[in-house]
Design goal:
By secondary structure, this protein is mainly beta. Helix content is 7%, strand content 51%. Strand 4 and strand 5 form a beta hairpin.
Length: 120
């Protein structure tokens, strides 16, 4: 297993946010002791959020991003009908803490980066 340069992927993701979205935060995606990587963020009602995934090449490389609300209900995912998409948009209709979880489907290098943006 090669070295994971998640910092590079994280920085590559920032300019890839869709037009009109303002950059909020970037995340490193590296598989550690768990089968997933998770971050939390407070989303605000009436705001649309975008999360993208960058990894080796132009694909998501098996990295799936899923957003859960405070009750741990899945509200959005980047794996749709077996396809991996590199960005998801989520229109928030309830202010609160949300969990951004990255999981790895095979084959995946378990290495990438992500950026979170918002648009009001």
């Amino acid at each position: 297993i090669g070295q994971c340069n998640s910092e590079t992927f994280r920085n590559q993701c920032i300019p890839k946010l869709a037009a009109g979205f303002n950059f909020l935060k970037s995340y490193k995606i590296e598989k550690g002791g768990k089968d997933y990587v998770e971050y939390s963020y407070v989303f605000t009602k009436g705001t649309q959020y975008m999360i993208n995934v960058c990894s080796n090449g132009s694909s998501a490389d098996g990295i799936v991003v899923t957003i859960f609300d405070k009750e741990r209900n899945k509200v959005a995912t980047s794996k749709i009908n077996g396809q991996f998409i590199t960005a998801i948009a989520y229109p928030c209709n309830a202010t609160g803490i949300y969990y951004i979880q990255y999981t790895f489907d095979e084959p995946s290098a378990h290495c990438g980066g992500s950026a979170l943006g918002f648009k009001r």
